[in-house]
Amino acid sequence: MNKHILIVGGGYVGLYTALRLQQKLRTELRDGEVRITIIDPHSYMTYQPFLPEAAAGNLSPRHVVAPLRRVLPKVSVLNGTVTAVDHGERSVTFQPVKGEPRQIAYDVIVMAAGSISRTLPIPGLTDIGIGFKTVGEAIALRNRVLHLLDFAESTEDVEARRRALTFVVVGAGFAGVEALAELEDMAKHSTRYYRNITPADIRWVLVEATNRVLPEVGPEMGKWTLEQLRERGIEVKLDTRLESCEGGHVVLSDGTEFDAETLVWTAGVKPSPVVNDGGLPLDERGRIKTTTRLTVAGVTDAFAAGDAAGVPDVTNPGQYCAPNAQHAVRQAKVLADNLVRHLRGQELVDYRHKYVGSVAGLGLHQGVANVYGVKLRGFPAWFMHRTYHLSRVPTLNRKVRVVVDWTLALFFKRETISLGEMEHPRDGFRAAVATTRR
Ligand SMILES: Cc1cc2nc3c(=O)[nH]c(=O)nc-3n(C[C@H](O)[C@H](O)[C@H](O)COP(=O)(O)OP(=O)(O)OC[C@H]3O[C@@H](n4cnc5c(N)ncnc54)[C@H](O)[C@@H]3O)c2cc1C
What is the pTM of this model? Predict the structure, then answer.
C-alpha cells in the first residue's frame, strides 16, 4: 500500500532523511510503496556552517544552499509552513507561502523543523537586533557592515560615526564567534579602501553570559580563541549580559554603556514554534520528546531529530545530543533507516554517536579545532575547517562551486561592496513616481 511520509522542515535532518529515503526508492523500497513530501518555507536547504563565510564574502550566498527540488527529484516539495499537527488524525495544517491554509494527510511524520533564535525580553532588542541563522540574515549583515563603513566615511558627525562603527555580538558559541571573527576580518580588510577609517576606528564587542567562549572546542582551545580575539582588538566581555539596547543605546550588566547601530543576537536556540502546536509530547526544554531510536516518545508513526528534538545521548547517559549539524546529519541517516524498518514491522536501532569535537573558522587563514582530541590552531585548523565542511556540504554541484569561490578568492581581492539596496529594490522607482507631475 502507498504510504505517505511527510517531512516537516527541509534543513539538515529533512534533506538528508529525504535523500536517504530517495536512495531506498531505487533499491529497497518497492515501486509505489511510499510517497514522500517535504514542507519548508524555502525551496532550499541552508548549509549553516558556511553562513559566516557567506557574510564575509568568501562564498556566494547561492553556493551555501542546496536546491531541494533539484536534489530530491523523487520527493514532492511544498513551500510554506506547517502551522499545526493533529497526529491523532494523521494530518497537518499547511500554510502555503500565499493563500488559504489546507490540511495534508500523512501516514508517517518526520518532525525536522529545527530551531529559531532563543531571545529574552530585553528592552530594545527588536530596535537593532538581528539573528544569524539564515542566508538572508548573513547577507543583510554583510551589507550593513559595509554600508556603515560607507556612511562613517561620509559623515562629519563624530557621534554618528562612532555609533555606526560599533558592532555588538551577543553569544559566544559557534554562530556568534564565527560570525564576529569573519565580519571583523572582512571589515578590517575593507578599511584599506577608505581614506579616513582605520581598523582601530571600528569597535567590536562580544558579550557572553558565561565565563568561556566557543565551548564546542573544549576549555583549552576556547581559552586560546579568547586570547586570539582579544589580540585582534575585539572586546570580549565574559560573565556579562545585555540589559537593554533601546534605540541603539547598549547597556551591559557590568555597567558599560555605549551606542551601537548593529547588534547580532546568537545567544542560543529554541525549537521551532511548530513543535508547540504539534500535539506531540515535549520534554522539559520544549523539544519534541524523542526516544533513542528517533521515534517520538509514546506515539506511533512519528519520528523526530535535529535541533527540534530532545534525543537522549546513549554514549553519555542522562544527557541529550547537542543541537548541532554533526548529530543532525547522522540522526537523519538512522531515522530514514528506522522509518523503513518501521514500515516493514522490523526492530528499530538506537542512534549512537559520540561527539567528536569541532572545528571553527575565525577569518581568512585563521581557525581553531579540537577533533578526536587533536587540537589545532591558526592556519592548520582553518584548512581543516574548510576541508571538513567541503566534504559535508550537500551535492557535488555545491562542492565544485564552493571550491571555485575559494580559488577565485586566492587570485582576486575580496568584494567589499554593500548591495543593501537589494533589500529595497523599489525605493528608486517610488522616488521617481513621486517626482512625476500630475
Ligand atoms: C551560523 C551557524 C553556524 C553553525 N556551524 C556549525 C558547525 O560548524 N558545526 C555543527 O555541527 N553545527 C553548526 N551549526 C548548527 C547546525 O547548523 C544545526 O544544528 C543544524 O542545522 C540543525 O539541523 P535541523 O535539521 O534540526 O535544523 P535546520 O537545518 O535549521 O532545518 C530546519 C528547517 O525547518 C524549516 N522549518 C521550520 N519551521 C517549519 C515549519 N513550521 N514548517 C515547515 N518547515 C519549517 C526551516 O525553514 C529549516 O529549513 C551552526 C549553526 C549556525 C546558525
Answer: 0.92
